[in-house]
Amino acid sequence: MRVITGIVGIAALVLLIACRSQLSLSPTDQTGDAVSPAGPDVDDPYAAEREKLVREGITAWGIEDQAVIDVMCRVPRHVFVPDEYLNQAYANHPLPIGYGQTISQPYIVAMMTEALDLEPDDVVLEVGAGSGYQAAVLAELVRQVYTIEIIEALAEQAEQQLTALGYDNIEVIHADGYYGLEDRAPFDAIIVTAAPDHVPPPLQSQLADGGKLVIPVGPVGGYQELWLIERHGDTFTTSSLGGVRFVPLTRDVRGE
Ligand code: SAH
User: Fold this and answer.
1) Which residues contact 85 (CB under 8 A, 6 or more apart)?
2) CA of 193 to the centre of ligand 1 (A)
3) Angle formed at CA 90 by CA 59 and CA 114, multiple of 5 degrees
4) Was domain 6-244 assigned CATH 3.40.50.150?
5) Among the four 2, 74, 122, 161, which has the fewest Cβ within 10 Å?
6) CB neighbours of 174 closer than 8 A, spacing ≥ 6?
């Protein structure tokens, strides 16, 4: 009887706790292979808030890929958020990061990452580094991430933050991401976190065979459709992941 009560108790605990690290498993225990940095080593007073966000806004909203859930449990969103918004770092909505830009909503980060269906050996391109948060999430799952940012100050900030956290598999590039990154192509996955009004042809052509592109497309200031585009040889299939709202993809490379 006592054994059964114990088993029921453990099952209830597992159901209540979304982040397995809260059960004292190491990141390597959770994922099997240690692919990239086993989670940044930071002072983390936000673990409980992050766990609550993952439970209420990631798994409860339908994210099922365990590797993605584990990464959302590990990556410290609060270090990518400006000080004045620290108290909202684990709220499930976007936040301003300066220069009229935003760090994406955590659920959207998880949903787009899940849609890319990543493998540990993948090379990924992100357009729109912003704070660097999405790049950190990707870098925990794959071999190499290239992330392009058009605003120089944000590119520098993201680069500094990601280096400080110990990510050595992310390269931040200050450029117009519309053109992708020809000299590092092809990419197993491309994720665009700013919205153009059409799919940039260079991004499609830089997708590897079997690769996936996730991109919001729509008018400036309005809602966009989030598209998943998959390449099979010279054929591209497109499916909708729903309505989203991103900042626009701009075309003028701004320096300071
Ligand atoms: N992925 C980011 C969210 C960034 S918001 C994060 O996790 O924080 C979108 C970003 O795309 C902004 O920083 C904006 O400056 C950038 N951006 C807009 N147009 C761009 C372009 N043509 N090339 C590269 N970055 C662009």
Assistant:
1) 95, 96
2) 6
3) 40
4) yes
5) 2
6) 148, 149, 150, 152, 155, 156, 253
Beta strands in 14-118 (DSSP E): 95-98, 101-103
Percent of the chain with pLDDT over 90: 79
With a 6 A CB cut-off, is 226 part of the ligand 1 pocket?
no
* Closest to 149 in 3D by CA, of 124, 169, 168, 132: 132
Atom of ligand 1 nearest to the CA of 176: 23
How far is C-alpha 141 from the geometric centre of its chain's CA atoms? 10
Whole-model pTM? Answer: 0.89
Q: Among 131, 95, 109, which Cα is nearest to 65's?
A: 109
Is 104 known to be catalytic? Answer: yes
Among 21, 26, 36, 104, the active-site one is 104
| Each residue's pLDDT tens digit, 123-160 | 999 999 999 999 999 999 999 999 999 999 999 999 99
pLDDT in tens, 173-192: 999 999 999 999 999 999 99
For ligand 1, atom 4, name the residue with the nearest CA.
Answer: 130
